[in-house]
Design a protein that fits this description.
- The chain has about 375 residues and is of the alpha/beta class.
- The protein has 15 helices and 13 strands.
- The protein has two domains: about 210 residues, Rossmann fold (3-Layer(aba) Sandwich); about 160 residues, Rossmann fold, CATH 3.40.50.
- The strands form two sheets. Strands 3-2-1-4-5-6-7 form a seven-stranded parallel sheet. The chain has a six-stranded parallel sheet with strand order 10-9-8-11-12-13, with helices on both faces.
- The longest helix is centred in the first third of the chain and has 30 residues.
- The chain starts with a strand and ends with a helix.
- Belongs to the glycosyltransferase 28 family.
- Keywords: Glycosyltransferase, Transferase.
Length: about 375
Amino acid sequence: MKVLFIPGGSAATVFGLVPLAHALRGAGHEVIMASNEEMMPVITGTGIPGTAVSSRDIWHYVTTDREGNRKEETPLDLEGQALSTGRWFAQMGADWLPALLDMAKGWTPDLVVGGSMSYVAPLVAAHLDIPYVRQAWDIDDSNIQDRGAELELRPELDALGLDRLPEPDLRIELCPPSLTPPEVAPAELMRWLPGNVQSALEPWMFTKGERRRVCVTSGSRASKEREHTFEFLQAVARNIAPLGVEIVMPAPEKLAVELRKVIPGVRAGWIPLDVLAPTCDLIVQHSGGATTLTALNAGVAQLIIPEAVVFEAPARRIADYGAALTLQPAEATPERVASAVAELLADPSYTERAQELAQQIAALPLPSDMVGRLEKLAARNQG
C-alpha cells in the first residue's frame, strides 16, 4: 500500500502526522509526505521520506491572495479569524494541487492522509478516486476554518462537481476524552505520540536536576527575527529567575545563541521537547498544538498564553480541567507571568490534573492500531 501524507506547511502540522506515517512504514507500507521546500529538512529529520510541491513558505498565504495582492489585516474576532485561517490554508492547498496531482501520476498512492486543515488532501483523493483520511494534528476543532476553506476553494470544488469539501472516509482525533467538545464530529480516537525532530542528547536533557525546571517556549515558530518573541522570552526569564527555578528554552540555534548571551544561566538550544517535557515541572507556551500535546502527554502543568483568538478554546478547556492557567496576550506582562508560574509551582493540583490527562492519552489506541483500518480502506477501494 502506498500512502500520501499531506501536512499543512509548518513544523507542528508535520509533527502531528509523523507517528501514523511511521506506523505504516513499520508495517511494510510505502509512505511519502508532501509539503513545501521549507519543510523538507523537518520531514526528513523525523525519518519520513518527503517531497516538495511548492517553494513558497506558509507566510506567503497569510499575507498574499491568489492574485498576488497583499491581504488586509487578520480579523481580531474569533469567527473572522477562523474563517481567514481556513481561507489561507485552503489557498495554500489550491496552490499545491497541480504538483500533487502530477506527482500522483508516477507514484499512484492508494490512500491520502491529510491533517486537520490540509484542505488539498480531500481534493487530491477526489481527483484520484481513492480513500481520504483526515487526522487531527492538535486538540482544536476546525469547523469554522472549514467554512472559510470552502469559500476559498469554490473553483476547485466546482471543477469536481462538489458543493462542499468531501467528507473523509475515516476521521482520526487525538483529543483526550475529558477535553473533547460535544460538537466534534464522530471519529476514531488515537493516542498522540511526539513526532518532532531529534538531536544528539546531553544527560541533563533527560534527567531532573536539583531545582524545579520551567520550560519556556514559543515552539517551532520562534526566531530572532520575530523581535517581540525574543523580547518576551528575555523578560519572562528575568522575572521567573527569582523563583529559584532552572529555565530551559527549546529554540532554533540562531535564536538560542542570542538567548544564551542575554539570559544568565539559561539552557537554550534545539532540545527535543518530547525528551525534555517529562523532566519539567511546568511548561510556559503559546498554545501551539504540538507543544500543548507534548505537555499533556508528559503530564506536565502548563501556563498557556494563546497568541491568537483561534487558539483560545483548547487552552481554555485545559485550564477548565485544572491542568493549566491561561493568560491573554494583553495581560501577559512579565510580572503577571511570574505570578502565574509561582502559583502553578506552588499548587500540586495542576500537575495532578495534568497527569490524569496523560493517563487518558496513554489509554487510547496507538497509531499502529490504526494500520489495519487504513489497509481495509485501501483494499475496499481496490476491490
